[in-house]
Amino acid sequence: MDDVRDDAKGSGYRRIEVLTGPGRRRTWSDDDKARIVSETLQPGVVVTEVARRWQVCPQQVFGWRRKMRLEMAGEARAAMDFVPIVSAAPAATPERVPSWVAPGPIIEVKVAGAVLRVPPGTDADLLTTLLRAIRASAT
């Protein structure tokens, strides 16, 4: 008959291991994740050091960074979905320069199959927004 205390060596000695540190399967709030990710985005910061300080696996931090980057890209793309792209202007209408445009050369930008004509004095922020919207709608 076998004894319950018998082990492979027959000595009856059992090894007990005490685990210290944080338990497994911790749940992190979105605020904590954002705080950790923002800490890793600072110039000169090493992700592994931040992960060690927060007692998180570095791969977990990289996963959070990737997820937040994709979420931000999706929000930016959704914010720019309102801009329609016209592939070509009708050939029957002659091109006119509006009366409010100062005389001078007009810059023509072709991006992703769209043509954007930029008159002198156009606001740089408006132009940047338009170019980003055209590029985002082409993808």
UniProtKB/TrEMBL annotation:
Transmembrane segments: none annotated. InterPro entries: Transposase_8 (IPR002514), Trp_repressor/repl_initiator (IPR010921). PANTHER family: TRANSPOSASE INSC FOR INSERTION ELEMENT IS2A-RELATED. This is Transposase. One of its GO terms (molecular function) is transposase activity. It comes from the Bacteria. Pfam families: HTH_Tnp_1. GO terms for biological process: DNA transposition. Coiled coil: none annotated.
